[in-house]
UniProtKB/TrEMBL annotation:
Region (Disordered): 31-51
Location of the Nudix hydrolase domain: 2-125
Name recorded for this polypeptide: NUDIX hydrolase
Family: Belongs to the Nudix hydrolase family.
PANTHER family for this protein: 8-OXO-DGTP DIPHOSPHATASE-RELATED, GDP-MANNOSE MANNOSYL HYDROLASE
Family matches, as InterPro entries: Nudix_hydrolase, NUDIX_hydrolase-like_dom_sf, NUDIX_hydrolase_CS, NUDIX_hydrolase_dom
Length: 142
């Protein structure tokens, strides 16, 4: 079976708040815009496509901030900084997304998983030493 790849984008506004999307399925939880790679698609292309599909933004994909391996699904998640240079306004543009908003890192909405919080913390930590992380089952903050 081929390895699964996922990618997500960290998009900041002018106040360094991070864009999160609220899913219309599962726990209706907040998450980074992102998803699974399609065939013949790089992790960067996945992040760019998923942002466009979920919130309608055309972003530039920047620096890699972390790679997360989830042994439960044998999946690697890549996280990138993405820039919204045109200052477009994100709007839910997929049935999977109920809403999208910018949040400050110390006022993240709930429900949210520890995995989402970790990816945001790592991305905003400019002192980060490690890019590769192994993650366990999600813990929910509700």
């Amino acid at each position: 079976m081929p390895k699964l790849i996922g990618a997500a984008a960290i998009i900041l506004d002018s106040e360094d708040k991070v864009l999160l999307v609220k899913h219309s399925y599962g726990k209706n939880n907040w998450d980074l815009p992102g998803g699974k790679a399609e065939e013949d698609e790089s992790a960067q292309e996945t992040a760019k496509r998923e942002v466009h599909e979920e919130v309608g933004l055309e972003v530039g994909i920047g620096q890699l901030t972390g790679i997360y391996y989830d042994p439960n699904y044998d999946m690697h998640h890549f996280v990138f900084l993405a820039n919204n240079d045109a200052n477009q306004i994100p709007q839910p543009s997929s049935p999977e997304i109920l809403e999208c908003r910018f949040f400050s890192r110390d006022e993240l909405p709930k429900p949210i998983s520890d995995f989402t919080c970790k990816r945001i913390e790592d991305a905003l930590n400019h002192e980060r030493q490690h890019f590769f992380h192994t993650v366990g089952p999600r813990q929910w903050i509700e």
